[in-house]
C-alpha cells in the first residue's frame, strides 16, 4: 500500500468574520483532504474570524497593518509568521489588504483568492450591486491564483447562481456566499492536491481534475 502524501500546510489570511475560513477549516477535517489549516492571520486585531479559528483549535494571530510604516514592512512581518509556521500555501479569505508585488511574486503559484463575481467581470468591490446594475442574469464567484494585478489571476474554479427578479444586493450576496462556501474547499483541494497547477500564466488541470469538473461549476 502506498503512503498517503503529506498534507500541504496552509495559512488563511482574513480581515473580518471569516465565513469562508470556517468552510475551509471544516473541509480540512476530512482525513483524505490534501491540505491542513495550520495558521490564521489577520491585519485587523478585532477580526471576528480570529476567535472562530481559535475555537477550532487553530493558531490565530493579528498583525495590525496600522503598526507599520508601509506595505513592505507589513508584508515582511506577514512573511516572518508564514516562514515560522512552515506555510506552503496561502489562502486569502476576505483579506482586505493589497499585498506588494514582491510578496505576491514570491508566492506565485502558492496563493489563491476567492472573489464574489464571475471573473473577469466585476473586479474590485461592490460586485453584487454592479452585477444588478448591469442587468446580469448570471452572477457567482471565482477562485483564482493571485497575481500582482488585482483580481486578474488565472482561474481555478467558478460557481454560478441565477440573478432572480426582485433581487437586491443582499439577496444576491446570500445566494453567492452559499456557493463560495462550497467552491473554495473544492478549489483548495485541487491546488493542494496538485490537480490545478499554475504554469506559464495558465492553470494546468490533471485528468482527475477535469473528470471532476462538473462538480466545480454549478448553477
UniProtKB/TrEMBL annotation:
N(1)-(5-phospho-beta-D-ribosyl)glycinamide binds at residues 18-20. Residues 8-188 form the Formyl transferase N-terminal domain. One of its GO terms (molecular function) is phosphoribosylglycinamide formyltransferase activity. It catalyses: N(1)-(5-phospho-beta-D-ribosyl)glycinamide + (6R)-10-formyltetrahydrofolate = N(2)-formyl-N(1)-(5-phospho-beta-D-ribosyl)glycinamide + (6S)-5,6,7,8-tetrahydrofolate + H(+). Keywords: Purine biosynthesis, Transferase. CDD domains: FMT_core_GART. Its EC number is 2.1.2.2. The keyword Transferase applies. (6R)-10-formyltetrahydrofolate binds at residues 71, 96-99, 113. The record marks 151 as: Raises pKa of active site His. Pathway: Purine metabolism; IMP biosynthesis via de novo pathway; N(2)-formyl-N(1)-(5-phospho-D-ribosyl)glycinamide from N(1)-(5-phospho-D-ribosyl)glycinamide (10-formyl THF route): step 1/1. The active site is at residue 115. Belongs to the GART family. PANTHER family: PHOSPHORIBOSYLGLYCINAMIDE FORMYLTRANSFERASE. Catalyzes the transfer of a formyl group from 10-formyltetrahydrofolate to 5-phospho-ribosyl-glycinamide (GAR), producing 5-phospho-ribosyl-N-formylglycinamide (FGAR) and tetrahydrofolate. This is Phosphoribosylglycinamide formyltransferase. It comes from Methylorubrum podarium. The gene is purN.
